[in-house]
Amino acid sequence: MSTPYQERTFTSPEINPGDEPFFESARRGELLFKHCNDCDTPHYYPRPLCPHCFSSNTSWKKSLGLGTIYTFSVCRKIGPTPYAIAYVTLDEGFTMLSNIVDCDLDDVRVGQAVRLTYKSAANGDSMACFAPV
What pLDDT, on a 0 to 100 scale, did the predictor assign at position 116? Predict the structure, then answer.
């Protein structure tokens, strides 16, 4: 069985106050994440307080965009276009939910190396996705 990736329209994200640097960097093809300067821990999704120690002493850092698939699901029957969603653990130490793109979806595997890529959303924003290395 083969399930090739098909382009689809991504829903534009809601931008919360303070998230502007994240979305501005996405338009440049960069992935920013938050890092706690007190407990020295990265976290995603971006938020003003560290979820590990609740410190507000956080800063933005740039990810290299390389990681591995922690777990995934291929959705074939939810709509007209099949797609794969996955939790990707980035080399910087945080995990994020994203889409796996530009590959045969039946070849996606846990532990597979992936790299950051961007796809366009409905309003022209860029959505962080991952493709196999």
Answer: 97
